[in-house]
Write a structure and sequence with these properties.
By secondary structure, the chain is mostly helical. The protein contains 2 helices and no strands. It folds into 2 domains: 1-43, no CATH class; 47-86. The radius of gyration is 23 Å and the shape is elongated.
Length: 86
């Protein structure tokens, strides 16, 4: 099992490095290259440099909020059910 964990961890690390390099190139280096550069077609339009991370951030915050809301509701139901002893 340790070998598969190491393989999965290595794959996740390589994916994170690729995403970091791709996004850094897209956000920081691409604006300084001319429009005729061969790298320009490899990247989406510049407006998505902000939209994609913003969407991921909002989705993550909504997911965390829904998770906490669900936990709080289940705790409230459990406490209200435990308080009624017949």
């Amino acid at each position: 099992m340790a070998t598969s964990d190491k393989l999965l961890g290595g794959l996740m690390l390589l994916t994170a490095i690729f995403v970091f390099v791709y996004y850094t190139t897209w956000a920081l280096l691409l604006p300084f290259l001319p429009d005729s550069s061969p790298l320009q077609p490899l990247f989406p339009p510049r407006e998505y440099v902000i939209r994609i991370p913003l969407f991921i951030l909002v989705s993550g915050l909504v997911g965390i909020g829904l998770f906490f809301g669900r936990i709080m509701l289940s705790e409230a139901r459990r406490r209200s059910g435990a308080g009624k002893k017949v």
